[in-house]
Amino acid sequence: MMQNKSELYSWADRVNAANDTLNAAQRTLQNDKIIRQSSLKDRFVDWVSTTPAEHAVEEAEAILSRLKSQGREVARIWVISSAMADLALAPEFSLYEQLTQRKINLQKRVDKAQQLLSIAENADGKLRVAEAACHSAKDSEFLDLISKSKPMSLISHMDTEKAKKAIDEASRAVRTLANTLPKRAQSVQIEGPDDFLDLVIDFTFDFGFDFMSWFNMDKLEDAARQCLKVRQTIEPLLTSLKSTYVKTDALLQEQNLAVSRIEAPYLVSATAQVPDVIRIKVPDHL
């Protein structure tokens, strides 16, 4: 609910009164320090403790700071409410509503694309780690075979366990991606200011093997090839998601700019009406 403009002046009066109180406290403190100069005892007390005059200044500063902060928050709410009320009566309000709804729709698409991209990038990263771990474990296994040393055998065992763990993490990441993606191809129409951008992404792919079978594979080289195979399957999807996110986000920025151009004059006008003592920076948006 929009505050009455008189409330702004009420807060301004409170801030001005607090500022006067601080000025008076500062003058009292200045006089107190002058008087204390004539007494060694009083100078010592001033040096080792907070005098009543100093405490009064600190309290007045705290009160003024709190009132300014509260007053500026009241001013911010009033500016936004006042600007919105004035805009609602303007001829361009209908256009503003349309642009705002487009912005909301675009934001939802950007958020979804960003979510999917993050999950896909995580799966790709986990697969790369698993693939590297399998190659490393294979090398350790070979060295263990030719060296027949207990330390090398221990290293080989540890590398194999690391590879199994990496494969498990990659498996879960890919399953998360598969469960998050839509089950069939989707056409995402994104409305721009002047035209339509049709983004078609095929979210359907078949991994072609059982993830859990990785745990039963005898050859680490086979496991590494399986990781590469899934990563190559995900790669086109990852490219499409990156492209979708960039293009959709660009449209969103254009829409934000169009909305801001309409809002700006009303925000500037409302901000100019706020008393100086609680004046705020012009808000970026309603």
What does this structure look like?
By secondary structure, the protein is mostly helical. The chain has 2 domains: 5-89; 105-265, f41 fragment of flagellin, N-terminal domain. The chain is built from 6 helices and 2 strands. It has helices at 5-36, 40-48, 52-88, 93-147, 150-180, 220-271; strands at residues 186-191, 196-201. Strands 1-2 form a two-stranded antiparallel ribbon. The chain starts with a helix and ends in a 15-residue tail after the last helix. The model is unreliable at 184-217 (pLDDT under 50).
In short:
With 286 residues, the protein is mainly alpha-helical. It has helices at residues 5-36, 40-48, 52-88, 93-147, 150-180, 220-271, and strands spanning 186-191, 196-201.
Q: How do the strands and helices of this protein lay out in sequence?
A:
Elements lengths: L4 H32 L3 H9 L3 H37 L4 H55 L2 H31 L5 E6 L4 E6 L18 H52 L15
Helix pairs in contact: 1-3, 3-6, 4-5, 4-6
Summary keywords:
286 residues; mainly alpha; f41 fragment of flagellin, N-terminal domain; 2 domains; two-stranded antiparallel sheet; 2 strands; 76% helix; 4% strand; flat
Radius of gyration based on Cα positions: 33 Å
The top-level CATH class of the largest domain is: Mainly Alpha
Terminal Cα separation, in Å? 14 Å
Spans of at least 5 consecutive residues with low confidence: 184-217
Give the amount of beta strand, in percent: under 5%
How many beta strands in the DSSP annotation? 2
Roughly how much helix do the residues carry, as a percent range? over 70%
Strand order in space, largest sheet: 1-2
